[in-house]
Design goal:
Elements: H1 15-29, H2 43-99, H3 110-123, H4 125-137, H5 151-160
Helix pairs in contact: 3-4, 3-5
């Protein structure tokens, strides 16, 4: 069965139009009288229907905008969480890399001292100032200028920071 919807506007005060409509409905229904009563519509009804359609369209658009906004917010939160997680993982990796450098039994070399110094300077500017004072006390400009005799003293100092 194929269905079709027909919208028709007629003037209910015009008997020719109402008679033609009744005849049309009789033809469609196989000779039976139409079961629905025809109602008179006005221009205000048409405007109300248009307004309702416009309101529904506006509501759909507003809902779509709200979904898009929430999606953007969720994406930003997800990216921020991922960045924080990555930073935390990198910090953990850095800590793991330096854990073996703090052992007293490990042989102290210039590379170890440089690495420890970089870690402490990165952690705090106060550490940087203290390191500069210690290097001045040892009468050197930088870690690379340290004598091997001073390695242990500098290592003890840097690990105590």
């Amino acid at each position: 069965m194929n269905k079709m919807q027909v919208t028709l506007s007629i003037d209910l005060d015009n008997t020719e139009q109402t008679d033609a409509m009744k005849a049309f409905m009789d033809t469609l229904s196989g000779g039976e009288a139409p079961t629905k009563k025809l109602r008179k519509t006005t221009a205000a009804d048409d405007e109300d229907q248009d307004d309702d359609e416009d309101d529904a369209e506006e509501k759909k658009k507003a809902a779509a905008r709200e979904r898009a906004r929430k999606s953007r917010e969720a994406k930003k939160k997800k990216e921020a969480a991922a960045a924080a997680k990555k930073a935390a993982e990198e910090e953990d990796e850095d800590d793991e890399d330096f854990d073996d450098l703090d052992d007293e039994e490990a042989e102290i070399d210039l590379a170890t001292l440089r690495t420890l110094t970089a870690k402490k300077v990165k952690a705090s500017t106060a550490n940087r100032d203290a390191i500069k004072k210690k290097l001045a006390k040892l009468k050197v400009k930088n870690v690379s200028s340290l004598e091997e005799d001073d390695f242990q003293e500098y290592h003890d100092f840097i690990t105590a920071l």
